[in-house]
Amino acid sequence: MVVTVNENFNLIQNNYLFVEIARRVDEYQKENPDVDLIKMGIGDVTRPLAKSVIKAFHDAVDEMGDPETFRGYGPEQGYDFLIEDIIENDYKPLGIDLRNSEVFISDGAKCDTGNFQELFSQDNVIAVTDPVYPVYVDSNVMAGRSGKAGDDGFYEKIVYLPATAENNFVPALPQEDVDIIYLCYPNNPTGTTLTHEQLKEWVDYAKENDAIILFDAAYEAFIRTSDVPHSIYEIEGAKEVAVEFKSYSKVAGFTGTRCAYCVVPEELKINDSNGNKVGLTALWNRRQSTKFNGVSYPVQRTAQAIYTPEGKKEIKENLDYYVENAKLIRESLIDMGLDVYGGENSPYIWFKTPDGIDSWSFFNLLLNDAHVVSTPGVGFGPSGEGYIRLTAFNTYENTKKAMERIKQLNL
Amino acid sequence: MVVTVNENFNLIQNNYLFVEIARRVDEYQKENPDVDLIKMGIGDVTRPLAKSVIKAFHDAVDEMGDPETFRGYGPEQGYDFLIEDIIENDYKPLGIDLRNSEVFISDGAKCDTGNFQELFSQDNVIAVTDPVYPVYVDSNVMAGRSGKAGDDGFYEKIVYLPATAENNFVPALPQEDVDIIYLCYPNNPTGTTLTHEQLKEWVDYAKENDAIILFDAAYEAFIRTSDVPHSIYEIEGAKEVAVEFKSYSKVAGFTGTRCAYCVVPEELKINDSNGNKVGLTALWNRRQSTKFNGVSYPVQRTAQAIYTPEGKKEIKENLDYYVENAKLIRESLIDMGLDVYGGENSPYIWFKTPDGIDSWSFFNLLLNDAHVVSTPGVGFGPSGEGYIRLTAFNTYENTKKAMERIKQLNL
After folding, report:
1. Which residues does chain B have within 8 Å of residue A107's beta carbon, measured at their own beta carbons?
2. Which of A17, A110, A135 is nearest to A379 (CA)?
3. Vertex B185, ends B183 and B190: CA angle to 5°?
């Protein structure tokens, strides 16, 4: 025999989206070194870590330099000090009770949403809204659940649930038989949300159809409207059908610091092939214990500082800053006569390109003529064609300048 | 249809070893709160981070608090500043040239060695030395490459290469047809090493048999003997057949700080089912870009400090400290008349239990009667039965005390 490659990797359609954008931007910048690009493509923050968060980081680093307080391996699942603060602050106020054993600290929601599919058998059918965060699709392609991609960009075995202006970005329940549904609300990339009633339909669907929902709530902190649920567990019975992913990346500017968590309730049990019920909490615990060694101790202490009164106040100021940017982008684009979505409970603004121009062409136009880096909607899936995503994570000054530059294009 | 579980998880034989040890120790400590246990089980360090390393950590944290120097998402593969220092310090002095694109920074060798199997097709045959670090086996069990475990503890589809006192801990080349070979030298758990000549046999075998070697060099920094290679790439042609995993956990006390790296040379190409060659560097890059978001920026700066003249001096002091402990353990156990291995180029000491008592019974004896936490050899695989692993990572004082306590057992 001969060692052979996992050929599912060949089925991936192109470069990871943000790597491809970075490549194009680098190329442009090399050819045009004097151009002052404004980056509103990748969802990366620009505000520094909050003061009290930095203080906690320093304190924990000091602990690591002192033999009395030094910490080696921590629990793979994360330290209880952080898990308890998460439950107390992110869930109790919503009326949701969680056990410590149901919360798993990780180094990113990308890792968690990419890895979680390992717990399922290979023949499960995946459903994603379209457009969608590429990690859900690509990690399942690598795992052999996708089949081949057609010329239309759709993988043959994945069920796509379009979310477009035509259905007001509320995807219809699947007509096909699906097992694992990825939902992200507030949505990446469209910036749209589901109401409590709309999310309840998905939970009910999952219950009736023995499906599971992998719910990505990475942008929850941007919710400002009262009818939008902050957690899927606000929906009755959701613990029996849903895993929830959260991240500190956007909440507290942790994109370079790396900390996130996911919730896997003990009530969440799925079938083995004999029809016996298997609890996913224990399974995820086993996966993490085997292939992960926990998050850096100082980083966990840093995340904990977000939950102090001072930390809460400071990160709210940062969030409000980005919310103001989102409002500015949204209103500016509407003023230009564009069809604009999102940007109200989300740092993402999604808009239709003018005159039906395709996403990558408009990406190039914004790059070359406005010196603004965006994300082409089609990079998130076929239904994203003809759309562009902008993010609210740049500075207010740059955001304003970018809007003026786009306005001068006279779209 | 119904969502179903990855049943390969059911094939795992028991709890992850170190979780099981922690559970037993917790239980004992609860029942005996006044007993002063000395922990020499899990390979966790006790010396704090070095001074210059702590300084670099603080400096990088300060950068994260300043809008001018704040860093968001970094490259998934790691920052070039660290990659370049790795190549310059860990490889150039050995006569090994590497490209930046061949080095991938991660949050741990456990993650890397656990995840790397994703790049291979499911029907590849895995070979492990026995005893072995459990992650290699368990990650392949989860991926469906193991088949069932027999009563003897061996998985039916995995090829085991015994390393015992009988063959002087030099495993024989496989008789069966194998595709992926996990090697760890200096070895965990036995603390033994391979010479340049012995390692060359494996590289030659891999070349002749179209196999690949996943080489775990996490304990390289403990090598003190000149005939032991520091990298598999010291062997001619190894770049065509081997991936190398390195970790800062033991080198610089990063078990709680989290940083490691792996090397995937461009020369390393394997077959797809049509016999076309596929480069693993690009494949691993794609895997990491999709499912990983890079290591915390301050942590990468912290790791970089290890390569400064001051950092090198300080971590050498820490390493020498552990080397002294290893020597003390080794010599003490030999004085007690035990058969002792390792502990010379390794922080691990491996010894035969007296009178053929089984590993877990002797683990319990050491726990109950000497109040020393060890690791039962059988936890690393069937050929580890009748052996015990001790680690040199406790303080010198505790190590000495532990040796005195074991001596009083009059084994």
Report:
1. 107, 258, 293, 295-296
2. A17
3. 100
Contact state of A54 with B61 under an 8 Å Cβ cutoff: yes
A-interface mutation test, from B1, B5, B391, most A Cβ less than 10 A away? B5
Helices (H), ranges, A336-407: 359-365, 396-407
A113 vs A302: CA distance, rounded Å: 23
Is the CB of A291 less than 8 angstroms away from the CB of B256?
no
DSSP 3-state of A120: strand
Per-residue pLDDT of chain B (411 residues; tens, 9 = 90+): 789 999 999 898 866 688 889 889 999 999 999 999 999 998 899 999 999 999 999 999 999 999 999 999 999 999 999 999 999 999 999 999 999 999 999 999 999 999 999 999 999 999 999 999 999 999 999 999 999 999 898 999 999 999 999 999 999 999 999 999 999 999 999 999 999 999 999 999 999 999 999 999 999 999 999 999 999 999 999 999 999 999 999 999 999 999 999 999 999 999 998 889 999 999 999 999 999 999 999 999 999 999 999 999 999 999 999 999 999 999 999 999 999 999 999 999 999 999 999 999 999 999 999 999 999 999 999 999 999 999 999 999 999 999 999 999 998
Structure tokens at A314: 């400071």
Q: How far is CA A276 from CA A121, A208, A271, B11, in A?
A: 14, 18, 5, 15
Asked if the Cβ–Cβ distance from A44 to B73 is below 8 Å, we say yes
Using CA atoms of A329, A335, A336, A339 in order, give the dihedral in degrees to the nearest 10: 80
Q: Whole-prediction pTM value?
A: 0.96
